[in-house]
Amino acid sequence: MLNAAPVQASASSAPAGVSSKLTPIPEPVKAPPVYKEYPQTISLQSVAAASAGDASIKEENEEFTQEQFDKVWKDFAKAEANQRPRLSNLLLSQVPQKPENGLLFRFIVGSVTVKEYLYKNMHNVLEGYLRANLHNTHIELRFDVDGEVEQENTGMPYTSKEKYVFMLEKNPNLQILRDIFDLETD
């Protein structure tokens, strides 16, 4: 066996135009971590003092017309068309009328489910949009369920007996067919 000796690179073995000296790459310098100091406790006095100096919260009470309200309402509905097209259609289907006295606007919806969705997801956003664009912080928005539509939805037949009674009200001849063929409902 031959003993192999390590080969060292010489200046003559490097390709033309390339230096044979290798320069070491310096290691990156790590910056020391930055720690923010947070107060250990928050007092109500410090919060009150901070909010007392906050001038961004101010009460506005500008008068506006029904036409101005309609425009702002429709602008909001159109802005929601890309994100929530069904909500946009619902808002465009009707515009609340400005009450004679006070600023409580009622928006009538067809079911309790829609009412709950609007209160949970859109009430604060829509009310804030109306207040900001009409420059009146006293505007209030309430969603109510239309009594006729809700009663119609709750009277939907589910069981076979309820379906039979519902169809019998629509067409009394159904009773004759039931008697002829001696049919029973479950």
Q: How would you describe the overall organization of this protein?
A:
- The chain is mostly helical.
- Among the domains are: 66-152, GMP Synthetase, Chain A, domain 3; 156-186, no CATH class.
- It has seven helices and two strands, in the order H-H-H-E-H-E-H-H-H.
- The protein has helices spanning 44-52, 66-79, 85-93, 112-134, 147-154, 160-170, 173-180; strands at 104-109, 140-145.
- The protein has a two-stranded parallel ribbon.
- Strand 1, helix 4 (112-134) and strand 2 form a beta-alpha-beta unit.
- Helix 2 packs across helix 4.
Provide a short characterization of the protein structure.
The chain is mainly alpha-helical. Helix content is 44%, strand content 6%.
Largest sheet: 2 strands, parallel
Gap between N and C termini, in Å?
99 Å
What is the correct CATH architecture of the domain at 66-152?
2-Layer Sandwich
Biggest sheet strand line-up? 1-2
Question: Helicity, in percent?
Answer: 40-55%
Morphology call: flat
CATH topology of the domain at 66-152: GMP Synthetase, Chain A, domain 3
